[in-house]
Write a structure and sequence with these properties.
Elements: E1 13-18, H1 24-28, E2 34-38, E3 49-51, H2 57-69, E4 76-80, H3 82-96, H4 109-130, E5 134-146, E6 155-160, H5 167-177, E7 180-192, E8 200-210, E9 228-230, H6 234-242, H7 311-320, H8 324-333, H9 348-356, H10 359-373
Parallel strand pairs: 1-5, 1-7, 2-3, 2-4, 4-5
Antiparallel strand pairs: 5-6, 7-8, 8-9
Length: 380
């Protein structure tokens, strides 16, 4: 067995949490060449690069996979925020098992399924780290009454604001996964306003960042940072930039691999394939790409999906240029509905739990169906 000694340079896993409006997204935007997956729409007024807002858990995992397979598109992947991402996870688990809520599983099975699914999500992010891309997760914070078994009384402490019912399952996973767990807050001081010192008022409001564990909050780091410091990216910039791997030294806007052969659906003359780099630089020349069955739908394309369908399904169909007829064909092949039944008439739970929840399997059947129809003209 080979013995490896010394420090190993690799991308960092950073979790930043704090009260709303303190500047978590702005902090994350200062990381090297960031690309945002904005789950809640908090970066609309920020000049940053972002992927389309995921409308389903499946879509979120597809966007993470895209970044992993195309490391040249960014040096830092930011998911803003994980508490909203967890909501997509819970909705996915419930739809997959045809439940209306996490409590409907019984015996706590819903929480176990959520923990397992969220663990796979963190494993996907670890794959992004292995590709040489930093990962930053932002989250809101909440105050919770906490009581230690060996102490009298209870006290308030700050924690990650994940699902009220699922927090005990997913929060420990996030904290264990991170290299740096940073808690940011406003530091206030209580000042006496009378001679007897009985009346006080709050002053201050400076933004600070805590990097080590405290009875009143969770935090950690592995780099010798001071317990309390200014809430500014410059505090950790040296750690992040020194550990930039060789994979990150590639040009920021390296083009993704060449697309596959085009589909039968042909875009209009005005349609152009939008490369992810177009979101990040408008002045660089853009290269036209022929759309493939695995490429996003081009703007101006003749391809159209009924807007009355649920947005989570529409996003997945448009991304892969999947027509309603193709879905009807594979659904009929499995015996769920007759092929003439419109998707609008499908049960909503079937759409969310099967078509969206098991989209990778559905799309695999569609690709197989496409291959069967691709027969040379001379073989009639």
């Amino acid at each position: 067995m080979e013995i490896i000694k010394g420090k190993i340079k690799r991308a960092k896993k950073v979790v930043v949490y704090g009260p709303e409006g303190i500047g978590k997204s702005t902090f994350a935007s200062r990381f090297p060449d960031p690309l945002f997956i904005d789950t809640e729409g908090s970066t609309n007024d920020m000049d940053v690069a972002r992927l389309p807002r995921p409308t389903s858990w499946t879509r979120l995992l597809e966007e993470i996979e895209y970044v992993e397979k195309n490391p040249g598109v960014c040096k830092t992947l930011v998911i803003d925020t994980i508490d909203w991402a967890e909501q997509l996870c819970v909705e996915h688990v419930c739809a997959k098992h045809n439940k209306s809520g996490i409590e409907d599983f019984g015996y706590g099975n819903g929480y176990v399924y959520t923990k397992e699914e969220f663990g796979r999500f963190l494993n996907r992010l670890t794959d992004v780290i292995e590709a040489g891309i930093h990962v930053v997760l932002t989250a809101h914070a909440q105050l919770r009454k906490f009581e230690q078994p060996d102490e009298m009384g209870a006290y308030d402490r700050w924690e990650l604001k994940l699902g009220k019912k699922t927090q005990s399952q997913t929060s420990p996973l996030v904290k264990e996964w991170a290299d740096m767990l940073l808690f940011c807050n406003y530091k206030t001081y209580s000042v006496a306003v009378d001679d007897k010192g009985k009346k006080h008022k709050a002053q201050g409001g400076k933004r600070v960042m805590y990097t080590c564990h405290h009875p009143c909050w969770d935090a950690k780091n592995r780099y010798g940072l001071p317990d309390e410091c200014e809430f500014d990216y410059g505090v950790i910039a040296g750690i992040i930039e020194q550990t930039t791997s060789e994979a990150q030294q590639k040009p920021t806007h390296e083009a993704p691999p060449a697309p596959k052969a085009p589909e039968p659906v042909t875009p209009s003359a005005e349609g152009k394939q939008m490369d992810l780099n177009d979101l990040k630089t408008e002045n660089q020349p853009k290269e036209e790409v022929t759309p493939s069955q695995d490429a996003p739908v081009p703007k101006g394309s003749v391809f159209h999906v009924d807007e009355r369908l649920p947005k989570a399904l529409r996003d997945l169909m448009e991304d892969k240029l999947v027509s309603e007829e193709e879905i009807q064909a594979v659904v009929a092949g499995k015996g769920y509905y007759p092929q003439t039944t419109p998707i609008l008439n499908y049960d909503p739970d079937f759409i969310s739990g099967v078509l969206v929840g098991a989209w990778p399997q559905v799309y695999a059947m569609i690709k197989k169906l496409r291959d069967e129809y691709e027969v040379p003209f001379d073989e009639k």
